[in-house]
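user: At home tonight, take the chain set out below, taking as long as you need, and be ready to discuss the fold:
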Amino acid sequence: MIFHLFKEHHGLTPTTLANRIKTWGLELGFQQVGIAGCELSGPETYLRDWLARGWHGEMDYMARHGRKRSRPGELLPGTIRVICARMDYLPEALEDTKAACDHPIQAFISRYALGRDYHKLLRARLKQLALRIEAETGPFQWRPLVDSAPVMEKPLAQAAGLGWIGKHTNLIHPRAGSWFFLGELYVDLPLPVNQPLPSHCGRCQACMEICPTGAIVKPYELDARLCISYLTIELAGAIPAPLRPLLGNRIYGCDDCQLVCPWNRFARLTTEADFRPRQGLDTASLIVLFGWDEAEFLKRTEGSAIRRIGHQRWLRNIAVALGNAAPSPAVRQALQARGDHPSDLIREHVHWALAQQQQRRENEGAHDNIPADPSPQREPRP
């Protein structure tokens, strides 16, 4: 009603407004903005089947809220359109990211988490966009969402023409790859919707073949219980022992499937200073990070998405990575220093890591006179 009254008095059509919204979004730092309807019956069926298989693991929040996740109008009554936006976050050349994977002693953190927590930044920009629209149309109903409510962000973004969902279940844009964040603005404005892009994965299965744990069980089907991102971030308890050697040096998330996707040759480096690496986490040594006590962890991860896993999971993940690291006295000493940690969870992972180190030394015929650390011990920047 408000929108139609505004149109009558100011001559603003839905198409004109939609075009202006996209322009304003670019001015606010988004790389693309599209508009989707609220029809998600296909993704709703997929989600129901995925949950029935138990592939969400301990992510109980995926099963909460009934149909609100797949029906925007039930989450925010009155919603008839979703303005979807993407913001690129790739902080470094892909060659540098590839070099950091499987490094003998360096920690690997998923590149989306190296900088400032994206939730706050994107939500603030979406709010600015809503206020800019409101200045043009007058009051209307809106709500910005960035992983903060039950939202099927990738199906919505696909419907808004921001890309297609690839076989690894990430969104891919043909001229931007997949290294970007997504955010949504639920609105009650009758805007014209964009057309979805067709899939261009073809016969490629590079993401499925590279996945260290085989989490992409079929094209477009991910068993989160096997995914390294789930194991290092969402899982609260012990990482299953058979999967630990497959994690390599990944202590927070995993980017392997994106690194091999041929469409990411078109990915562009971020222009957002807040997404660039903080605290030297892009090159930090596992041994240095393992030495952080809880106060240091909280200080170093202030304003970062990493903080949400807490110090205990942080140590758990690094213990596993140290168990997978090249054997050395320095690694062994770092693990032994945590051998009597008050947490049963930490002690168990440390003892596993020490056993792994011992086994690798025996298999490789290593001796204690090998270099203590094949890479410089670099303390992350304050």
Notes: The chain is about 40% helix and 10% strand. The two ends are 53 Å apart (CA to CA).
